[in-house]
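Practice record 12: protein with pyridoxal-5'-phosphate.
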Amino acid sequence: MKEMQAKTDTRHYGQFGGQYIPETLMAELQRVADAYDKYRNDPDFVKELDDLLNNYANRPSLLYYAKQMTEDLGGAKIYLKREDLNHTGAHKINNVIGQALLAKRMGKTRLIAETGAGQHGVATATIAALFKMDCEIFMGKVDTERQKLNVYRMELLGAKVHPVTTGSMVLKDAVNAALQEWTSRIDDTFYVMGSAVGPYPFPKMVHDFQSVISKESKQQILEAEGKLPDMVVACVGGGSNAIGSFAEYINDPDVKLIGCEAAGKGVNTDQTAATIERGSVGIFHGMKSLFLQNNDGQIDKVYSISAGLDYPGVGPEHAQLAELKRAQYVGVTDEEAVQAFEYIAKTEGIVAAIESCHAVAYVEKIAPKMSKDQVIICTLSGRGDKDVASIAKYRGVDIDE
Ligand SMILES: *Cc1c(COP(=O)(O)O)cnc(C)c1O
């Protein structure tokens, strides 16, 4: 982004966040922020949002007591927050419904979005179909080749998919292309941001729309156990399912919050996506946050077996929670995540997304060290059907996709 502008006010999370964007987008972001302030407590908006979450997306999601895992690991009681059971198979729909509803209220008729593996693109195309809106998805060319099935799925839902050929042709380049497209056409277009990242008000909107996860889990755990959990664990890419899982517990200091980053081949290798552990402060994609970058501020190539965690930055609120030590962030390797993918399938009969299995792997490590009267909630951010072929390949089994 060439013309940079920073604002210092409530748009920040400590030193992180802000709006580092071209001048032309500044006024539009303000309109989005104003519209969000107007509608977020508007009874009709809230009613329509709740109705769609409950009757279209299949909420509330279950908080499932994982009895076999608990007995097998022999420590803390483990509950799984089942975002994998949502329509379209992950937590992303919670956020997309909220942002698309806001777009409609603002009189927009066209949704654009970036996507990496295609999960956010599919969720956005789904809601665009439901709302009869135009939809265009920006996806790195490399990713369109790796994720052909999701490209076709988006097209089936009526979206147009643009392969992005700039940079390394992956997710970060798709975000740049989508921001650029938005800049050139703001009158009828709303940019549906896929994670708790980007310039204000996106991190706040995504936080709020995903906090339905912890609003539900808090009520559910109080009903099941009569007390708050000792620990909440979630995987972190940009950080949307994690911030949604943490939100209602941030002011409960006795609840430990653990974010699991993708360490790839290892936190100390150059094939990693462990942004918080390994990154440094920088400005990219409209926000100040932590990024994997070289000494010149060039964004590094990142790597993880999980396409959904393969992002070189993290949302600004997580950067702040890490700095304040309110949440702790740990790296989980490909190998540990694959092992957890197999473990939860065999012990609980759940094929969970490889992203989510980064959180499951940490639970496997920590639960045996905790006592039997302690409680962990682990978010399963999505279902793992999409990963079966690539995990088979990782294990040396070649199956036709
Ligand atoms: C996209 C995705 C993630 C990572 O995104 P966050 O914004 O960090 O939640 C994690 N799990 C699944 C299943 C995803 O689709």
